[in-house]
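hey can u check if this looks right to u? its 262 residues, i copy pasted from the old doc so theres a chance i mangled smth
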Amino acid sequence: MPKSGLEEGSLFENKLKRKLSAGKTTLGVWVSIPSPDVSEILSLMGFDWLVFDTEHSPMDVSTAQVLIQAMKGEETTPIIRVAWNDPVMIKRALDVGAHGVVVPWVNSREDAINAVRACKYPPKGIRGCGPRRAERYGLDKEYLSRADAETMVIVQIEHIDAVHHIDEILGTPGVDAFFIGPADLSASMGYLGQRTHPKVLETIEKILDAGRRAKVPSGIFSFSLDHVPKLVEQGFQFIAVGGDTSLLMRGAREALSMAKKG
């Protein structure tokens, strides 16, 4: 009988986690259009990661699974942003095959601990044992033993309360990276819609400094493509070059502009 190819060991390897641990800069896209065509195309482009957004889009975890299944190759790491710091949402995201989760509104050490525990199997956490697709429907015999080390916990820093507790949050064992949300952060500081306000930029630098001290990789959503080199220079390793909707709009606008000039 031919072998499945998984009997020799696990195929579950988080390439994003290894790149960040090696100090490399990674580039990705925030996905909110619930179409497998989108994730397939973006994975073919060579991005390091895709985040499937179930917080600020119509997408739910079952749709996210379909989009993950449509991804081509193994170089692009699938991540799901859960809608809330909820253990059921987190385990379902991991069970459908996400290699990690972005957890929103982590404002305290307790929030960070809860996020980590939701991602880890006992005795380190409370994740239930029902991974199905994540363990290749039972074919990957090493998934359960490797999952705690391979999956990623990415906490989102997007409120001034989180800034007040930033060292405690980033010092929480099991936090693999953090992602700054400039839009909500600026709103919580009283600068709604002013992501580039000097006070907001100053606070972002303060968060980044905390990440350096804790040796935790930092991420952020770029304001524009021209802004990406500056973010790399600052030391951000987990950079969203845009969202699928913004990339579509930009490409459509440029195509229309060029066509009209012709």
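The chain has one domain: 15-261.
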